[in-house]
Amino acid sequence: MVGNEGRAINVALLGCGVVGSQVVRLLTEQADELAARVGAPVHLVGIAVRRPQRHADVPADLLTTDAAGLVARDDVDIVVELVGGIEPVRGLLLTALKNGKSVVSANKALLAEDGAALAAAADESGADLYYEASVAGAIPLLRPIQQSLAGDRIRRIAGIVNGTTNFILSAMATSGANYTEALEEAGRLGYAEADPTADVDGYDAASKAAILASLAFHTRVTADDVYREGIRDVSAADIAAAKALGCTVKLLAICEQVDGGRGERSDGKSYVTARVHPAMIPRSHPLASVSGAYNAVFIEAAAAGQLMFYGQGAGGPETASAVLGDLVAAARNRVIGGRGPRDSAHAHLPVLTMGETRTRYHVALDVTDRAGVLAQVAGVFADHDVSIATVRQEGRGQNGGDADDGVPNTRDATLVIVTHSATDAALASTVEALTGLDAVRGVAGVLRVEGLGRPVTELGGAS
Ligand SMILES: NC(=O)c1ccc[n+]([C@@H]2O[C@H](COP(=O)([O-])OP(=O)(O)OC[C@H]3O[C@@H](n4cnc5c(N)ncnc54)[C@H](OP(=O)(O)O)[C@@H]3O)[C@@H](O)[C@H]2O)c1
């Protein structure tokens, strides 16, 4: 690619909402500084929106409803996409990349669904494809994974990558509110959308997990590969149970490279796991103190050890900061006539199913308090190859008749069991078998427990 020294770099913006309007502001307010950093002026030459009448604050001559026409303009060097969703954006960005225009996007849904096609189009024409803002808003994360850690081996990424759910779980932990009350509070304060499905059911975090796993393990992982469980079923009792164990409950996106085993069998190969679900983590872990709408991502690498990235995961100016970082990088590459590092997907590691993925579990059982019940319950765990780390019994009082009416007196108890690491499939069949025991009145709660590289001594055994 021949350099562009001296000539202005022309930028087309698709979308001018929460993030796009802040990109326009920063491009305007910091024009001189950006030109100095890039080595050429950066000109905004057009802004595509749906409803131009709503954008009185941007120059009218820049506005258009013809996004395809804007992207096709010969004088456009870089397309910044801040519309979101899959169509029509996918077609617009593929066209732009095929025509050699670099693309900067914050669109996690599209990158997680079709990142491979976008990367292939960028490779074909030698254009840049950057999407730092698609995961964890303002937090510099994708560039450190792709570039700073390029010589290391990432073993695990565990992240709080959705501010809405972290706000809700934090509110439940601090005030004792139940899920519905905490969701209502999040809505009132502007942290939850009118339809919170994408956040509370884990779709947003699953897209981000797919992007993180793809970059960390040099393997294409799509949102469909990611196991997903949201926070709707997290109860106030789960939060209290976590507290009693020295833990807190977080919605985590966890991506791991697992060497040498698929489920119980060791086959010497490497696999990737990618999952989103609520989990208990020790309160001593740095992720446990990330509260409110903040995001944080904890990375474990073979040589670097443990790293944590923390900050604002959303918001107009915050996300625009990450977009501008990408824009400056893409513009600099245009000026010098090169391109940035391409996505590498050379490892082609298979993705384990959730059933094959190993973790630890907290299981609370309502049982009849009589001799032999504990042994029966322990037997079911052993039959399914799930090893128990700790058991705690809490008496809950009288149940059934009284002493004089001839009805046998029974007492209820809650058994709280924390397991060692087991496959999800083994735990699921254990729980199913437990519900068939006479003495088990109900399964009060099952939550995964993640030590995340620290010994969880309070729970028994290593992580
Ligand atoms: N908001 C955040 O904090 C945040 C954080 C991280 C990443 N992101 C990502 O950033 C992207 C933008 O988010 P946002 O919050 O800024 O969205 P937003 O406020 O809803 O803005 C979307 C913009 O896209 C325009 N638009 C919609 N359909 C269009 C079409 N077919 N053609 C042209 N323009 C169209 C809208 O035009 P009108 O204004 O005329 O309706 C609006 O200006 C999304 O991918 C999102 O996931 C957002």
Give short descriptive properties of this protein.
single chain, 463 residues, alpha/beta, 11-stranded mixed beta sheet, 6-stranded parallel beta sheet, 17 strands, 33% helix, binds NADP nicotinamide-adenine-dinucleotide phosphate
What's the layout of helices and strands?
Layout: E1 9-14, H1 20-29, H2 31-38, E2 42-48, E3 63-64, H3 67-72, E4 78-81, H4 89-98, E5 102-105, H5 108-125, E6 129-130, H6 142-148, E7 154-160, H7 163-175, H8 179-188, H9 197-200, H10 203-217, E8 227-228, H11 236-244, E9 247-259, E10 270-282, E11 294-301, E12 305-312, H12 316-336, E13 358-368, H13 373-383, E14 388-400, E15 409-419, E16 422-423, H14 424-435, E17 440-449
Parallel strand pairs: 1-2, 1-4, 2-3, 4-5, 5-6, 8-10, 10-17
Antiparallel strand pairs: 7-9, 7-11, 9-10, 11-12, 13-15, 13-16, 13-17, 14-15
Helix pairs in contact: 1-12, 4-5, 5-10, 7-8, 13-14
The structure holds NADP nicotinamide-adenine-dinucleotide phosphate.
3D architecture notes:
The structure is a single chain. With 463 residues, this protein is of the alpha/beta class. The protein has helices spanning 20-29, 31-38, 67-72, 89-98, 108-125, 142-148, 163-175, 179-188, 197-200, 203-217, 236-244, 316-336, 373-383, 424-435, and strands spanning 9-14, 42-48, 63-64, 78-81, 102-105, 129-130, 154-160, 227-228, 247-259, 270-282, 294-301, 305-312, 358-368, 388-400, 409-419, 422-423, 440-449. 33% of the residues lie in helices and 27% in strands. The strands form two sheets. Strands 7, 8, 9, 10, 11, 12, 13, 14, 15, 16 and 17 form an eleven-stranded mixed beta sheet that branches. Strand 14 and strand 15 (409-419) form a beta hairpin. Bound molecules: NADP nicotinamide-adenine-dinucleotide phosphate (NAP). The site of NADP nicotinamide-adenine-dinucleotide phosphate has 25 residues, from loops. Residues 14-20, 48-51, 54, 67, 82-84, 88, 106-108, 133, 137, 314-315, 319 line the site of NADP nicotinamide-adenine-dinucleotide phosphate (NAP).
